[in-house]
Design brief:
Layout lengths: L4 E9 L10 H7 L6 E9 L13 E4 L12 H14 L3 E5 L1 H14 L3 E6 L8 H10 L4 E5 L2 H9 L9 E3 L6 H7 L3 H8 L6 E6 L8 H11 L6 E6 L5 H10 L6 E5 L13 E4 L8 H8 L4 E4 L2 H9 L3 E3 L4 H12 L3 H18 L2 H18 L6
Parallel strand pairs: 1-2, 1-4, 2-3, 4-5, 5-6, 6-7, 8-9, 8-11, 9-10, 11-12, 12-13
Helix pairs in contact: 1-14, 3-4, 8-12
């Protein structure tokens, strides 16, 4: 019997989603058929409670390391991970985000796992000089690096520290469109759950309430057009350290009856059809899944013109505005709110069709499977 390829997917913390339409770690698992691959999911910290989901991998491992153990030199964590990988004899390890990548870069000097894949989600992971210094001598032929968008890939190449055109690729984030659509509530039910007037025009945003998401700029832009469109509401689903500041800003702008901040909602995608227009005013993004979720709801989109989102939004026929430019954002809001409903529907449908053509989940799964296979062919495991 042919030995299956043994794959470890290593993540910084337990974060398996109840619905995996946009849980990309789980989508990688689903793209590795069990007859050919043996997949283990491992989490450096955390573990699920009794009512929480587990990975679809054949086996899950929870190291349950403390925050302290994962800071600084991380010697205890490295020691445990080294012994685990040595005993398991993996053919490939997929590391999601900086911490697992950094740990495996050091450990694979001794483990010699044939395939190591590091996935980077943000543009700033290697801004710090010492991080770039660590990569340069450790990124050997066993390593392949993935940026979740062409912009993230380019940010890695620009570091000039071991990321090269040969070992660094873009595998753009994707979404299981069919399953995402099945989860969505109807427009009427979604609005009822969120306490929105049935006949209002609704501008929607989804994201953590943190400064980089640009929600304060969105509030001030909305304030510029609110009087012209008295039946319009703005709703931002999410929570975070910026909440109190945003609530204060809503009061200062006199928008208490027009702006809704319902907090974080599990599976926020369920409510996407409550919106007529989706806005993402971020100042920086790797490649936001919330934007893909909005497009599954056939929504027209207004998005900051930043590198990671330009190609997607331009291709989908969305509106790009300079980040933090409240005047340009207000003008875009006014232009969209002034359109007839049918025009908005056509724009949303165009975005949906582009999404289906360019960001379906099958291509995403296939890309990771090919990356494993091709790298393993170039670096076959030595006999024990």
């Amino acid at each position: 019997m042919t030995r299956r390829i043994k794959v470890l997917q290593l993540q910084p913390s337990y974060n398996v989603k109840r619905h995996d339409f946009a849980d990309l770690a789980e989508q990688i698992v689903l793209g590795l058929p069990a007859e050919r691959y043996e997949v283990v999911s491992a989490f450096l910290s955390g573990r699920p409670a009794a009512d929480q989901p587990v990975s679809r991998a054949e086996r899950s491992v929870y190291f349950e390391l403390s925050d302290a153990a994962l800071k600084g030199a991380r010697l205890r964590a490295l020691w445990r991970l080294f012994h685990f990988c040595r005993d398991e004899r993996f053919d490939a390890v997929i590391c999601s985000r900086f911490k697992p990548i950094n740990m495996m870069l050091w450990l694979n000097r001794w483990l010699r796992i044939p395939v190591c894949i590091g996935i980077t989600h943000t543009l700033s992971d290697y801004d710090r000089r010492y991080r770039r210094w660590q990569v340069r001598p450790l990124a050997d032929d066993h390593w392949r690096f993935v940026g979740v968008s062409p912009a993230v890939r380019q940010s890695l190449l620009d570091c000039a520290c071991g990321f090269t055109a040969d070992n660094t690729v873009a595998i753009t984030n994707a979404i299981d469109i069919e399953n995402a659509e099945a989860l969505q509530l109807s427009r009427e039910d979604a609005r009822a759950h969120l306490g929105l007037p049935p006949q209002a025009s609704v501008i929607g945003a989804i994201g953590r309430l943190v400064p980089v998401k640009g929600h304060a700029h969105l509030l001030r832009a909305f304030a510029r057009v609110a009087a012209r469109f008295p039946d319009t509401r703005l709703l931002i689903i999410g929570d975070g350290r910026e909440r109190a500041r945003l609530e204060k800003l809503v009061v200062q702008l006199g928008l208490e009856s027009r702006v809704h901040l319902p907090g974080a909602r599990p599976d926020a995608l369920r409510f996407i059809r409550a919106f007529d227009l989706f806005v993402m005013p971020s100042l920086e993004e790797g490649f936001p899944l919330a934007l893909l979720e909005a497009m599954t709801g056939r929504l027209p989109v207004i998005v900051s013109d930043i590198p990671s989102m330009h190609e997607l939004v331009a291709g989908a026929g969305g509106q790009l505005v300079p980040p933090a430019d409240e005047g340009a954002l207000a003008a875009a809001l006014g232009a969209h709110l002034g359109l007839p409903d049918e025009a908005l529907r056509r724009m949303g449908l165009a975005a949906y069709e582009y999404l289906c053509a360019r960001h379906g989940i099958a291509d995403y799964r296939r890309a990771f499977r090919a990356l494993i296979d091709d790298t393993l062919a170039a670096n076959p495991r030595s006999a024990p």
